[in-house]
Amino acid sequence: MNPDNRMEQIIENAAQQSGAVVREWKRRAKRFRIYRFFVLALLVVSVAAFTWTALYAVDSRIPSTIYIRLGEKQEIRLNIPATGEVRAASGMQASNIPQGAVTIDLSGPVTMFTGSLSNYDMQVRLFGFLPLKQVDIRVIEDQELIPMGIPVGIYMHSDGVLVVGVAEFSAENGKMVSPSKNILKSGDYVKAVDGKEVNTKQELIRAIEESGGNPVTLLVSRGGIEQTLEIRPCKNALGQYKAGIWIRDNVQGVGTLTYMDANGNFGALGHGIADVDTGLLMEVDGGTLYETEIVQVKKSEDGNPGEMTGRIVYADNYALGEIDANSTRGVFGVCNDKLSHSASEEPLPIALKQEIEIGPAQILCTIEDEPRRFQVEITKVHLDHDNVNRGIELKVTDPQLLQLTGGIVQGMSGSPIIQNGKIIGAVTHVLVNDSEKGYGIFIENMLEH
What we know:
This protein has helices at about 5-60, 200-210, 335-340, 400-405, 445; strands at about 65-70, 75, 80-85, 100-105, 110, 120-125, 130-140, 145-165, 170, 175, 190-195, 195, 215-220, 225-230, 235, 240, 245-260, 265-270, 285-300, 305-310, 320-325, 330-335, 350, 360-365, 370-380, 390-395, 415-420, 420-430, 435-440. The chain is of the alpha+beta class. The chain has five domains: about 25-60; about 65-140, Immunoglobulin-like (Sandwich), CATH 2.60.40; about 170-245, Pdz3 Domain; about 250-340, no CATH class; about 345-445, Trypsin-like serine proteases (Thrombin, subunit H). The chain has a six-stranded antiparallel β-barrel with strand order 8-17-18-22-21-19.
């Protein structure tokens, strides 16, 4: 081979090898950039997740509302790395919260005192500068309640006629029809037909049947907002005009009476009564509380909550009071003389949520003949909780109650929880997978219904 050609070949081979090396280095550099991008992205996501988790953990320890008693020093322990800027109402007197605003350290115990029923706002700032949460500070007068713990029958009238569902039926000509489809919805309350108020199922059925197949105008409450809707009833195979809706005008159940106050008002259940079909809180227009006798107790088992079965007599001489509210915090109303004279316990002061301790407590409930206190243990207190009915976690420790019921059963909702001689809340739910454990609502939340 010609030396010049050989040299050219050598140079060409070297160039090819050099190019391959360069391409390999470029591929490696690209892979490194991609790898670095994913590492940085993972780091950013991890830091964001850690930060969010930390903020959520701190936020969950801060109550949205703090109650303090009028004229009494109240110690608040949040123990978070934050400060709180408290703004006092004008005209404040006899208070360690001065006029204008004051910044307090929330990393340790804070003592608050006021001689005025004014309310306050507190801006919580993480590390003293990062706005985190707005807290209401409400001043209340000290209050005593009579713990009841007796079973009661509850009968409530809905505020209007509740639409449970919309259905089809066979019309006169044999075709399937649904006059209310895409017009009425489950959870609607029909309050009037053609301007005439309806309060019962019978009134609504009669108005539909007497329509003669002409369009009828319904006043409907949907999500608390009233609106006017029109439907045209159809004649069924029996010659009756129907709207194709399932309806209900009342709700009934058994629960436990929590307390009675000095003015003859009562609170029960610790949670509202929802319709069994729609799952929505019943909008009620009054109701009655009745005496109930527990006739059977089905024990709870893990995964299968038990229940107390009561015998209710819906007669005037068995009435205990009138119901005027059904809220997420319970059922409330006014006692009659019969209920007022049936209390077996002495009045007790209430405990605010920051005063509740992890440890022994009692629940007052009726399993057999008379109300009795049973031992439980408070296992956790959620000062701030998305679910107002689950601020307290508890476990049944009383051997006799465990023998009788297996733990917490349906019908015990509303049983007052007592600790250190004070009412701290009421039982609301059982933990399905562990019937010895359950939840409760703070008594302060029941009182603010």
